[in-house]
Design brief:
- The protein is α/β, with parallel strands linked by helices.
- The protein has 6 helices and 10 strands.
- The strands form 2 sheets. Strands 2-1-3-4-5-6-9-10 form an 8-stranded mixed sheet, sandwiched between helices. Strands 7-8 form a two-stranded antiparallel sheet.
- Bound molecules: glutamic acid.
Length: about 240
């Protein structure tokens, strides 16, 4: 406000003095802003689960994104709070609404690189498989959760979330379908299952193996060949109820 007031006063003075004020035109965007605009954009739908289940109040979508140090150097993150509940409480109607919302988002925002969905781990594999079949776009839809809650020693939620953002932002994830990212591993929503109630490496695709890994960078070893996402026969836009 101070600067804009100063600008108006200066312009008025120059006008009275008859000075050409074109040199005061808005400066081009600073290099830092330009660099941020060039980063891939990823949108997160937060639904709750252990990843947000802090004692005394669940972490919000904004708090989850803010928990990742320096994310803004790699990704332009946006998000919305879709739900904030345990995954067993999510209804089929809400699944349908989420799939529709993701489809609408992809359709409307061609500059979007991918989507992240946070979920409780109890029904995470089912949600990921559902989105693998109903999100009709080549861009990645990454489902992520945590085994330890934010009030637990060794909470791994922020690390998993960072990995999910990196996977969703990476062009190599295009055409990979619905993905599950936890514990540095990228699994297909079609193949992955939760194998243990406590272990951090609980999500496994057993003999199929991981699609890839994500440490600081994303690396794929194979691609799902069964029909999914953009090639799926399922169209939730035409379905009233599951
Ligand atoms: N493991 C639970 C789930 O799958 C999380 C518990 C909670 O967030 O209340 O949602």
């Amino acid at each position: 406000p101070f600067h804009s007031a100063l600008r108006v006063i200066l312009l008025a003075c120059f006008a009275i003095a008859g000075v050409d004020t074109r040199f005061l035109a808005q400066a081009p965007a600073a290099p830092a802003q330009q660099a941020a605009a060039a980063l891939p954009r990823v949108h997160m739908f937060a639904t709750g689960g252990t990843i947000s289940n802090r004692n005394g109040g669940r972490l919000t979508m904004d708090e989850l994104i803010a928990s990742i140090p320096n994310l803004d150097r790699r990704v332009r993150a946006t998000g919305e709070q879709f739900l904030n509940v345990a995954s067993g409480q999510v209804t089929m109607e809400q699944w349908l609404a989420l799939a529709r919302k993701i489809n609408e988002k992809f359709k409307a925002e061609k500059d979007l690189a991918g989507v992240v969905v946070t979920s409780g781990t109890d029904t995470l594999e089912e949600l990921a498989y559902f989105l693998h079949l109903t999100v009709r776009d080549d861009r990645p839809c990454v489902v992520v959760g945590a085994m330890r809650n934010p009030s637990t020693l060794g909470y791994e939620g922020a690390a998993n979330l960072e990995e999910a953002f990196l996977v969703a932002a990476d062009p190599a994830s295009r055409g990979m379908g619905g993905l599950v990212v936890l514990n540095n591993e990228i699994n297909s929503g079609r193949e992955v299952t939760k194998t243990d109630a406590k272990l951090l490496n609980t999500f496994s695709s057993h003999d199929y193996g991981v699609l890839g890994t994500v440490y600081d960078r994303v690396q794929y070893f194979r691609k799902p060949v069964k029909r999914h996402t953009a090639a799926s026969e399922f169209d939730v836009a035409k379905i009233e109820a599951l």
